[in-house]
Amino acid sequence: MGGARADRWAEGLGRPVPAEGEIPENDGGESITRWRPGTGVGEVHSSVEAGESPWSEGTSLQSCLQQSEEGRLSRKDNTTGVQPPGFTPERGMDEKVSLLRWKLGQKAKREPEFRFHALHDRVYRRDVLMEAYRKVGKLKKAPGVDGVRFEDVESDPGGPEELVEKLHLELRRKQYRPLPVLRAWLEKPDGRRRPLGIPCVRDRVAQAAVLLVLEPIFEADFLDCSHGYRPGRRPQQAVDEVRRNLLEGRQAVYDADLSSYFDNIPHGPLMEKLERRIADRSLLTLIRMWLDNPVREEDGQDRRPGKGTPQGGVVSPLPANIHLHEFDRDFHEDPEGPRRRANARLVRFADDMVVMARYMGRDMVRWIEGKLEGELGLPINRNKTRVARMDQPGETLDFLGFTLRLDRDLKGRSRRYWNLFPSAKATARLRDKVRAKTRSGYKKPLAVAVDEVNIILRGWKNYFNHGYPRKTFRGVNHFVRGRFSCFLANRSQRRSKPFRKGETAYAGLKRYGLLYL
């Protein structure tokens, strides 16, 4: 076929003939992610999915254009609503993006040793980037070093579409470079400060796009003992697993505390774990850029960390789970590990973990600490790590904000039960937040203060309304009423009286809309 004729044919298909060495754009409608009836899920549909460029040397232009025509037909077929068997779109997610994630997950489940080698073009698909923007945009987080907020992006004339288009071109042309992350600090109850790294809006969207693509691949590998930052899993499920093990008699608990886990993950071993599943060099380079990205400190200086993933980044929890997945696997599969030798159980939520067995001997403790500190390079906080004997009277276990304790039956019967309620630390943090909204110098109307306190109470109740929290809830209600009584008494020289005649504080605050737990 002549060159001029080929150009006209390509233009008739609506696709320009790429220059030599250029890969055609993959924009969400490509045949490599389309399912066609009669084609096995996850099987190779084209030379692109097999890791070969259709424009590589030795491939005829005619065959490449035939693949383009097949892509057009496959897009047309997909509009009929035909879906592969077993596929259910994820709630609230674009169907094409959900289908892509489903295909990646199915492939990863069927072939545990398979290395994915064509993922970068999925990341910069416009529909993937737009879905990433929707996921991170609804959180309305603080701005990064450039000072741009999501509200600024939405009020811009170009809107999110302009941001997505620019990011699409930068990633496709491999011109994307992340901005430094902004250092922020989170005050901890013990007076220490936890470092956070706040990326800018543009980098959050790029990280969320990578997370959308990588998450289903590694989800196929993660074990059931891991609960943290995984789709469809909640902290309460991890707490229920701990309580179930206690009921089964595993009442010797190794309560591990890792020192600044996110800040101590070594980059080299982490990248090796990523490369066991990912062979796409462009995507690995993108992840390495985020790991090595400098942090802009409070003094305005940029400092490049040698290890760790900054808390606050969208993609940070996934590498954290990947790094500890090796511990999960060895715990269950190592012949000398706790599961094989003592029928122990592991429950982990990111870096919060407990090992539960009927007896916690020195050999088991030595194995756990050797894996964490020796092989994974994660320091253990010896001051907080302990072995709890939960069958002892008064012994408690704090896990993910909850306290577990063996208590006597409330109705006076001889049996005992495993009580589960909000921990004292979690309750103290809630009270500090309420105090900040009801202090004497907080000069806002009562209705506004009630609305702000309600936001705090509603989120706290949604998380802790699990187990047996009624006693703690009653104490919080009494505390909040007392705080508002002091709040009204400090309004002016004369006592503020917003309640009706004969109305109690309980009824008056309820009329103003105060939420009672």
Shape: globular
Specify the helix fraction band.
Answer: 40-55%
What portion of the residues fall into strands of 2 or more residues?
A: 5-15%
Supply the number of helical segments: 18
Give the overall average pLDDT. 83
- The H-and-E topology, N to C, reads as HHHHHHHEEHHEHHEEHHEEHEEEEHHHH
Give an overview of the whole structure:
A hairpin with a 5-residue loop joins strand 1 (181-187) and strand 2. This protein has helices at residues 3-12, 61-78, 95-110, 120-123, 126-137, 150-155, 159-172, 201-219, 235-247, 267-275, 281-291, 317-333, 338-342, 362-375, 424-438, 446-464, 470-489, 505-511; strands at 181-187, 193-198, 252-257, 295-296, 302-303, 345-349, 352-357, 386-389, 396-399, 402-408, 416-422. The model is unreliable at 1-80 (pLDDT under 50). The strands form three sheets. It has a four-stranded mixed β-sheet, with no helix packed on it. Strands 6-7-3-8 form a four-stranded antiparallel β-sheet. The longest helix has 20 residues, at 470-489. The N and C termini lie far apart (76 Å). With 517 residues, it is an alpha+beta fold. It is built from 18 helices and eleven strands.
Supply the key terms.
517 residues; alpha+beta; four-stranded antiparallel sheet; 11 strands; globular
Give the arrangement of secondary structure elements.
Layout (H helix, E strand, L loop, with lengths): L2 H10 L48 H18 L16 H16 L9 H4 L2 H12 L12 H6 L3 H14 L8 E7 L5 E6 L2 H19 L15 H13 L4 E6 L9 H9 L5 H11 L3 E2 L5 E2 L13 H17 L4 H5 L2 E5 L2 E6 L4 H14 L10 E4 L6 E4 L2 E7 L7 E7 L1 H15 L7 H19 L5 H20 L15 H7 L6
